[in-house]
Prior knowledge:
mainly alpha, TerB-like, 7 helices, TerB family tellurite resistance protein
Amino acid sequence: METAKNHALISDLIVLAKADDKIMASEYDFILRIATRMNVSQEEVDRLIEDPLPSLPIVSEIERITHFHKLILLMNVDWEAHQKEVEVVRNFGLKLGIRPGAIDQILLRTQQYENRVIPAEELIQIFQTYYN
């Protein structure tokens, strides 16, 4: 199950990277780095690029937050957040059960950082504001 779960999570990243109809080298490299940490090979990533798996439900709140954070990081890795990518991230967030207000706040705060990376502590703080 862990392998299928990891492949589904990598597939989510691939779907986001393809949202603007092309996968930039920086996006591919980011996906490979994540995949390596999840014990998913480059060959498996390349197969998933051709045929991504559907999303799987994520039960754990910390896993949902972590996955959403990876999606946000990927969206900004090429320094361009295309409207299609923002829409895909928003839809993934909703599928993950993240409140629309939290998604909007995270997207807004991300744009306020020069490197487009919202610190994990701030991300968690936003979630705590919306879920407590």
